[in-house]
Amino acid sequence: MISVADRVLWVLNGFGIKPLNIDIVPGPRYSLYEIGIDPKKLSKLSRNEKDITIALGGKGCRIINPIPNKLAIGIEIPNPFDLEHLSLSDLLSSDEYMQSTAVLPITMGMDACGRVIVKDLADMNHLLICGGLQQGKTSLVNQLIASLLMKITSDDLKFVIANSNELELQDFMNLPQNYLANDGKKDCIISERPNLYEAFQCVTAEMQMRNGLFSIAGVKSIEEYNALFVSNRLNPQNGHHYLPHIICIVDEIQPFLDGKSWDDMLSPILELTKNTGVH
């Protein structure tokens, strides 16, 4: 760690930026170097940011100029080796996750300071995961599903999951009570394009039905609607019922398109998901 810090100091001095002090915040994959500099040098840092990044090793390096609420800049640099093996159990047993009040808590990993990142999927209409081959996209999908299952019961959470390679998500095949619909088979994961298209049509119809219930109840979101229902202010005899959140996951969408565009496949759902509890 000291040798990397010395390199940071050497590179900054080479660009005429003299650091006043440096603090190292080690993380499992990246370490953050908090560096105090003369505020008058911030503009010079900005002008040379790309060259400084290249001089520090390029790939994976990031400059934070300045660090919010601090009189310092930050430089994130990949560790020469992993300081800590990060497992799913580490994330799910963390205080950040266990104490989270999110409606749909999902663990995204750990930041450079070693803090577990927990987000609320309920605040997102959609989540797109991108990356190259063998970069961990499906592993992250597994992680997100596990995060939801650890805290939310099947009464409050239903899935529609599609993957052309069923082995990728096989850990979740034996949870029929957690799927929006299944035909009684052990395997509830969609692997054929016609079945996915039919499932999306059903989800679209579900969202239209929910919007109708919201209109009758005089509310605008699933949270407001369910609050009225559990307080016995909505009559089940009039078609009202408790609404679970629905999570639609397509791992590797390209095999399912079969000549159709992304918009043809998803646009009906994307237009209606807001506030209906479908993500």
Brief synopsis:
The protein contains ten helices and eight strands. It is α+β, with helices and mostly antiparallel strands and 279 residues long. The strands form three sheets. It has a four-stranded antiparallel β-sheet with strand order 1-2-4-3, covered by helices on one side. It has a two-stranded antiparallel sheet with strand order 5-6. A two-stranded parallel sheet has the order 7-8.
Question: What are the defining features of this structure?
Answer:
single chain; 279 residues; alpha+beta; two-stranded antiparallel sheet; elongated
Question: Could you explain the architecture of this structure?
Answer:
Helix content is 35%, strand content 18%. The protein has 279 residues and is of the alpha+beta class. The strands form 3 sheets. The protein has a 4-stranded antiparallel beta sheet, with helices on one face. A two-stranded antiparallel sheet has the order 5-6. α7 (193-217) packs parallel to α10 (262-270). The mean pLDDT is 84.
